[in-house]
Each structure stands twice: as structure tokens, then as C-alpha cells.
């Protein structure tokens, strides 16, 4: 897993899973705490994730809200889009450009 960027926009790549969750959480929480305005999380380089990785994203979303910020997802991979729709998290998370829910296969 790698994360690069600043306190306004971060690119997450590789695997966001149980092995990388603690490191990802630390970096993402620091970005939330040290910045202002929207925090854009670009997931276009994300290869895979698990429930723990999704939990990290939701935790960052909650932390951003408590800090008066908004987490915005960009470049959400199609498989994650389907997962967000299946779990109805697409209704909670801000997703740049939205999701074409009607074009996603049902899971």
C-alpha cells in the first residue's frame, strides 16, 4: 500500500487490507487533522481492499466530519462501486461525480 499527497488530496494505491490498515489509518487521520476543507481520496490506483480497508475509509469519513471537513472519494474502482452500492454506503460517502448506480450489475 502507498499513500502520497498532501492534506487536501491523497492518492491511495496497492492493497488496503488488514495488513496495511494501521499505517493507512495513521496517514489518513493526520491528513484530516492537519488540513482544512475537503479531503479528496483518490482510489484510482487501489488494487484491492477488504472489510478492514473499507472500515478505514469509513473511520476517516467520520473523523473528517468531526473536524468540520468532508471526505470525497475520487476514482472509485468499479468493484468498490458495487460494494458501496450493495452496502448502501454510497448514500453516506461523498463520491466525486457520483456513481452510475443503474449501470452497475446487481450483487
From TrEMBL:
<dbReference type="InterPro" id="IPR003658">
    <property type="entry name" value="Anti-sigma_ant"/>
</dbReference>
<dbReference type="InterPro" id="IPR058548">
    <property type="entry name" value="MlaB-like_STAS"/>
</dbReference>
<feature type="domain" description="STAS">
    <location>
        <begin position="1"/>
        <end position="107"/>
    </location>
</feature>
<protein>
    <recommendedName>
        <fullName>Anti-sigma factor antagonist</fullName>
    </recommendedName>
</protein>
<dbReference type="InterPro" id="IPR002645">
    <property type="entry name" value="STAS_dom"/>
</dbReference>
<comment type="similarity">
    <text>Belongs to the anti-sigma-factor antagonist family.</text>
</comment>
<dbReference type="Pfam" id="PF13466">
    <property type="entry name" value="STAS_2"/>
</dbReference>
<dbReference type="InterPro" id="IPR036513">
    <property type="entry name" value="STAS_dom_sf"/>
</dbReference>
